[in-house]
Amino acid sequence: MTELTQTILGRRGGAFSRAMQNPHLIVGLIIVGGMALAAVVLPPLMGLDSLAVDPLNRLKPPSVAHPFGTDNFGRDLAARILFGASTSLSLAALVTVLAASLGVAVGILASFSRLLDHVIMRICDGLMAIPALLFALALTATFGPNFSNLVIALVIVFVPGIARLVRARALALRSETFVEAAIAMGGSNLHVMARHIFPNVLSIVAVQVTFIFAETIVIEAALSFLGAGVPPPAASWGNILYDGKAAITKAPYMVLFASTAVVITVVGLTMIGDGLRDLVDPRMSAREAGGVRRFFRLVVPRSGKGDHQ
Known about the structure:
By secondary structure, this protein is mainly alpha-helical. It has eleven helices and no strands.
């Protein structure tokens, strides 16, 4: 085994070891992974059907037959929440991948062209000036409420933020010695982008996409609640909240279970983002830990000799 291979394996082993010692990352992965696994495995295993209507069992409270109760059409609420998890997670994953890919490409290109930088960044500034939910609502209302149009609208919402983040990082990297050396040795812009810039912006993008993933779930639920998201009868957490609004006095469990699913998933994704941030920038977690220690030294008095007298 060569020295280079040992170094690479050592770095990977060190990163894996730090990840395993990061409670935020571990708990977040367990929460989100558990939700995704339940959405994929439980419906076929338990024979659940989110569209099966049973008018005789409308708004039934939780029971053995229906652990989460039934909605105002007699549909099993557990089935709809699980299918809603599949809808929300698949939508958020698709939006995150597309937005990250386009944002990284646009940000890197803008950092290498002054003309593109002025044009693209002004467009990004204009798009970011509009609140994300309002902008997504306007786009889905224009294109029509369906899954594909919702993906397009949310990608347009999130690309400007990633592009600006990547551009700032890429401009900082261009002044680094290894990039200047690659350019001096005759490396083309495409080679420098792919070989030196792109790998070094992935760390900040990895942290950002987890928060975009979480925000996509919240915005999708809000749009579906407003009637501009995933159209019924397809199951989504926003649709369940909308249906539960009309029956909240008789069946509050509809709103409770759907909103709890949203909160748990978003908290898990936020914890993953915090864990990745700590892995990418250990100094941040060290500063936070130092701040906590200083806070407790100020709040909790030390026990000294005088305390025992």
